[in-house]
């Protein structure tokens, strides 16, 4: 019930504004009411000293292995986690998804096709079936790492805690299921309050996580033009009828991320794609007490700039050499 009330109040507030904005006499009352509900539902961020113990435990920018270091070992596997620790990572970014039978697992895609020798959507595969697939079968180093399983969430957390690695949980699946699974993980491993960050492109995921546990450090992930273009910059749509509305949605979403979502969710960090960051952007977030973390940074010269000039942690696919990005 505690989780439902804020969402209902927020929806009522927005609905009041939408229905009455054309009527000045009504808008005079509805807009302030909507804003009041918005602020009432907003979540207070953790203080910077508390979140800083997780985001900057060593007092310097962190080296974060993207999907465990997708270039250096099969992504999102226990071997990748171990390899990242061996290569000097301070943290790993791991993706959270769910199987057909509700088991939380570490996988980026909604299908198993790209990273395993199986096919089909993850949502139609049970964990027993998933455990039979080889998560190293299509990796460039598959001759070195011949056979890897897709790990369960609990297996990945246990290994990261053993190796003293901070974890960035990138939530891909259901907000409710993810919040419940991560809350259980934090209860099992209380050190995650100092060694874990929950992040997502979806603000609702972050909001639900902070409702479930306000003490969890959270971050919003963002890439400009994400509704209209791929990570490589190619348009999603060939039809202008779809492409330009998607771009308009991108403009609104970018504004909302910078001026609404972050404060509504009470996030402590902002994960930004490297092509859309500048000293002014870092300053913008610093004034709001939000730490900037940059992804995916795979060139040594870029890592040096972001760490030494912008003083930002970097998420990278490789800790040992320059490489192309893994989308």
Detailed description of the structure:
There is one protein chain. The two termini are 38 Å apart. It contains twelve helices and nine strands. Helix 1 (4-20) packs antiparallel against helix 2 (24-41) and helix 9 packs parallel to helix 10 (240-265). Helix 12 links the parallel strand 8 (291-295) and strand 9 (313-316). It is of the alpha/beta class and 327 residues long. An eight-stranded parallel barrel has the order 1-2-4-5-6-7-8-9, surrounded by eight helices.
Describe the largest sheet.
8 strands, parallel, barrel
Strand order of the largest sheet: 1-2-4-5-6-7-8-9
Radius of gyration over alpha carbons? 20 Å
Taken as a percent bin, the fraction of beta residues is 5-15%
Structural class: alpha/beta
Judging from the principal axes of the Cα atoms, what is the shape? Answer: globular
Which ranges are low-confidence, i.e. pLDDT below 50, for 5 or more consecutive residues?
1-11
> Helix-strand pattern, N to C?
HHHEHEEHHEHHEHEHEHEHE
Helix share bin: 40-55%
Key descriptive features of the protein:
alpha/beta; 42% helix; globular; GP_PDE_dom; PLC-like_Pdiesterase_TIM-brl
Write a concise synopsis of the structure shown.
The protein has 327 residues and is α/β, with parallel strands linked by helices. The chain has helices at residues 4-20, 24-41, 48-55, 78-86, 127-130, 153-162, 175-188, 192-195, 203-212, 240-265, 279-286, 300-308; strands at 63-66, 91-98, 104-106, 166-171, 196-200, 217-222, 269-273, 291-295, 313-316. It has twelve helices and nine strands.
